[in-house]
Amino acid sequence: MARKSTETLDKKEAKDPSFGDLKRKHESTRGSRRAATKSKYFQPDSEDDSEVEEAPEDGSSSAVVESGDDSGDVSSEALSEDEQRPKKRKGPAFTKATETAPSSGSKGKELWRQGVNTGLAPGTQIIIKKPKPRTPGKTPYLDITIHPNTMLFLKDLKANNDREWLKMYDADYRSSLKDWNSFVESLTEELTKIDDTVPELPLKDVVFRIYRDIRFSKDPTPYKPYFSAAWLVHHASRTGRKGPYAAYYVQISPNDSFVGGGYWSPDARALAALRTTIDKNPQRLKDVLMNDKMRAEFLSGSSTKTAVKSFVKTNSETALKTKPKGYDAGHTDIDLLRLRRFTVGTKLTDAEVLDAQVLRRIADLFSALHPFIACLNRIVLPDPGEEEDDDEDDEGGDEDGEAEDEQDGESGTEVSDA
C-alpha cells in the first residue's frame, strides 16, 4: 500500500512541478507541529507558550486545505498513512529520587527509605559487629555449677524480651544455654543414682526451649525468662520431659528459681486412679506426705498432723469447688479428692543457685522428692511385673484346686498372725 502511494505521488509531481513545492511546505508544517508537542513536556510552562501550534507566515497551511481538486486528493493520500496512525503518549518526566519521601507515617523508624542520602559511594559495604559474649572473669565455666553470666543473661532477657534484642545478643544466649545444658547433664547423672527409673536421656528430651507459644496468650513476649528441665520417666515408658507421669522439675531465673515435682496435669484416667486410691487407701499417699524430709523441704516444715493440709493448700488453685462426681460430699478426705493437681516445690535463692554446691543441693531435694514421685507413678501405672505375678498365681490355682485351697489356708494364717 505504501509503495503504491509513493508511485502515485511521483507521477503527479512529474506532471505538475508546483506539486513538489506544495508537498515540501506540508512536511515543514508537520515538523513544526511535532516540535510544539515536544515542548509541552520538556519546556517550562509560561503564558507565551499557551498556544502549542503556530501558523506559518506564508499561509501554507491554508493553501493545503484550500487547494484544488487535484491538490486536495494528493494531500489526503499523503496524510492518510501518518495522520491516521495513533500517536504514543509520552509520560511526564520523573524527578530525582532524593526529592521523594515515604508515604507511610513511620518516617524515621524504618530501616531504609527512598531519598535518604547516606554519603556512601555505590557498592560500599557496611559491617555492624555484634556484641561479644561476656567474659567469664575469674569464675570459670564448670559442668557442676551455674555461671553468674547465665543469671545475668536471664535478667537482661526479662528486661528486653524482644526478638531483635535476642538476635543482637545471640552470643550471650549461646554461652548461657551451653552452661545450662552442661549442668543438666551432670544433674541427670546424679538423678539416675537416686531413681533407677531415670535413664540417661538426650538433652532435647529433658531441657525445655525458651520459646513461648503466644498464639492464644495475652502475654505477647516471645521468650521465657528462665531455663528449665524436667524428667518424666517410668519403667513402662521413658519419655523425658513429655509423658503422662509424675516428674522431677528444676528451673533457674533471677529471684524465681525452684525445684519441684509431681503430677502437674493428670489426664482423666490418671486422675480417676488417684481418686480411687484416696478413697480406698488414703494412707498410702498420706504416709509419703508425712515423711520427715518431705515435710522439711517441700511442706514448709509442717508437722505430721498438718502435712496433708499444707499439701492441699499448695494445690488448691486448680481444685474443684464442689465434690467430684461419684463421691460423697461428707467424705473424710474430700479435700484430697477435689484436687486436680498433685505437686510440691521449694524455692532457691540466687545465692544457692550460684553456690559451688548447687548440684549437691538439688540432688538432695530430688532425693527427698523420690518417694512422692514413685508413689504417684505406681498409682497411675502399676508395675507390670506385679500384675504378671498375680496372673501366674491365678493360673496356678485354676490348674489345681487342692493347691488353691492350701494356698488360701496359708494366706489366711499369715493375715491372722499379722
UniProtKB/TrEMBL annotation:
Biased amino acid composition, Basic and acidic residues: 1-30
Protein origin, superkingdom: Eukaryota
Residue span of region Disordered: 1-111, 381-418
Compositional bias of kind Acidic residues: 45-57, 384-418
Coiled-coil region: none
Compositional bias segments (type: Polar residues): 97-106
InterPro entries (alphabetical): CHP02453
NCBIfam families: TIGR02453 family protein
The protein's name: Uncharacterized protein
Protein source organism: Aureobasidium namibiae CBS 147.97
